[in-house]
Design brief:
Alpha-Beta Plaits; 18 strands; alpha/beta; Rossmann fold; six-stranded mixed β-sheet; four-stranded parallel β-sheet; 505 residues; 4 domains
Length: 505
């Protein structure tokens, strides 16, 4: 099988539209990690992503009759722009079905490259269903974003370039994984020619479809998919891609949102370019891999796979990057409600920079403060801060990895309500589209009083809400069914210490 794919890769037609991207040294990362780190800059493609390779190669392998019919796909991201440009170069009519919620930058990216944009539905599944309907109605040829041998071969030209650009010893290549087209192409080529090089897939910890499939020995469908790294938000690995990955991918590791944000900053520091969350997965994976194994002196490549990021998302990235890098700790500290206690606490912090400080009067004897403190992963780790405060008599709760604290509580600390009874707290995610928030409130507020509500736009495709409901004890068994009826993912945060310290009774 590998030989067949290698032949397809070597004969792929990609360079009519794609460019050979540089393999660039990441000097700051290299020095910090003690290993040579190289970035394969696929963010420098004409469509700012590697997807152009597979899309063009697929079109080149269509018959004249198939091209005459026109092509169609469903995509809200990089595949859409890649297919649009590929079709324009070859004079093929390309119809791209995109959800109505797609950011304007991506819609214009497709139109500017000659694609016909059809906005349909509020979600990707609705857009996909309509694109397949167009195949039946109009006779278009469907071009899959990853699960096709010719698409895989086109993406595999990335590996061909890496081995040519770096003939010296190479230890591992870290590849972002969504549907698997890129890692399948890279694995097929590298394992045929240089089987000593490790191929390591990197996925977000909330959309790890390849890791789940590798563990199960077969393809599985994830029940939910996190969409922060929207370029790899795939619920099931492709069939053609998994046929390769199951045998030739050495390992799959997962990274958190904070680790992805930190990696975006790392790439910016080394290149002065801003990658999309999916594009930073390779670097995030390298950092975690090196930390876990303590390796030194190896040569590691990360695929910087794309730079199609919405500008307003950078606010969220910047907020979380310091946490992901281990350069900020978020803590809750209890101090005596007496004059001079704030001064004593600041003295206990020492020379560390306080990045955030929130306080609200709670009782006559003690105060709960929400604090951000600057740390350093090597010279002054979070653990040292926590130990120091505890030894000096300050009860402390570490909230650095607490999603509720980071998404909501830090922006609204100080809401204790002594007279609120029977309160339950929930965190929700819902699609960010017109009318979604009203629909949510309308359904949620119909039965029980809403006692807390917090919403903040994060510049992403999903909205985050925190809501408190006053539910009498004899009605609590009705809550799961009522929330399920709303149809949005939710988490019960009633026992979350961040809530109990700063908002609860």
């Amino acid at each position: 099988m590998l030989e067949q794919y290698v032949k397809k890769i070597l004969t792929s037609r990609v360079y009519d539209v794609a460019v050979e991207t540089p393999l660039q040294a990441a000097n700051q990362l290299t020095e910090r990690l003690g290993n040579q780190i190289l970035l394969k800059r696929e963010d420098l493609q004409p469509v700012y992503s590697f997807k152009i390779r597979g899309a063009y190669n697929k079109l080149m392998h269509l018959t004249d009759a198939e091209r005459a019919c026109g092509v169609v796909t469903a995509s809200a991201g990089n595949h859409a722009q890649g297919l649009a440009l590929a079709a324009k170069v070859l004079g093929v009519k390309a119809t791209i079905v995109m959800p109505k919620t797609t950011p304007e930058i991506k819609i214009e990216g497709v139109r500017s490259r000659g694609g016909i944009v059809v906005l349909h539905g509020d979600s990707f599944p609705e857009a996909l269903a309509y694109s397949l309907q167009l195949v039946e109605q109009e006779g278009y040829v469907y071009v899959h974003p990853y699960d096709d041998p010719h698409t895989i071969a086109g993406q595999g030209t990335v590996a061909m370039e890496i081995l040519r650009q770096h003939p010296a010893p190479l230890d591992a290549i870290f590849v972002p994984v969504g549907g698997g087209g890129l890692i399948a192409g890279i694995a097929a080529y590298v394992k045929y020619l240089r089987p000593d090089i490790k191929i390591i897939g990197v996925e977000p910890d909330d959309s790890n479809c390849l890791q789940a499939a590798m563990a199960a020995g077969e393809r599985v469908v994830l029940p939910t998919v996190g969409i922060f790294a929207d370029g790899v938000a795939v619920a099931q690995i492709g069939q053609h891609t998994f046929d390769i990955c199951k045998d030739y991918v050495d390992e799959v590791i997962t990274v958190s949102t904070d680790e992805i944000c930190a990696a975006i900053k790392d790439i910016f520091d080394d290149t002065r370019s801003i990658t999309e969350p999916a594009g930073a997965l390779g670097v995030a994976g390298i950092k975690k891999y090196v930390e876990q194994r303590g390796m030194r002196g190896q040569t590691l490549v990360a695929i910087d796979s794309g730079a199609n990021v919405n500008f307003d998302r950078l606010r969220h990235v910047a907020e979380r990057a310091e946490l992901g890098e281990g350069r900020e700790a978020i803590i809750a500290v209890t101090i005596p409600e007496v004059p001079g206690s704030f001064k004593a606490f600041c003295q206990a912090i020492g020379k560390r920079q306080i990045t955030e400080f929130n306080y609200r009067y709670h009782t006559g004897s003690e105060a709960h403060i929400f604090v951000g403190v600057q740390t350093h992963p090597v010279t002054d780790p979070r653990s040292a801060l926590l130990s120091s405060l505890t030894e000096q008599g300050f009860p402390v709760v570490d909230l650095t990895d607490n999603e509720l604290a980071k998404l909501h509580i830090r922006h609204m600390v100080g809401g204790h309500a002594a007279k609120v009874s029977d309160e339950l707290l929930f965190r929700f995610e819902f699609p960010e589209r017109p009318g979604a928030l009203f629909n949510f409130l309308n359904k949620l507020g119909g039965r029980w009083n809403i006692s807390i509500f917090h919403y903040r736009n994060h510049g992403a495709a999903d909205g985050r809400v925190m809501a408190g409901l006053q539910v009498p004890a004899d009605e609590r068994h009705l809550v799961p069914a009522a929330l399920a009826d709303i149809g949005y993912p939710y988490w019960d945060e009633s026992d979350n210490p961040a809530y109990q310290l700063f908002l609860g009774r």
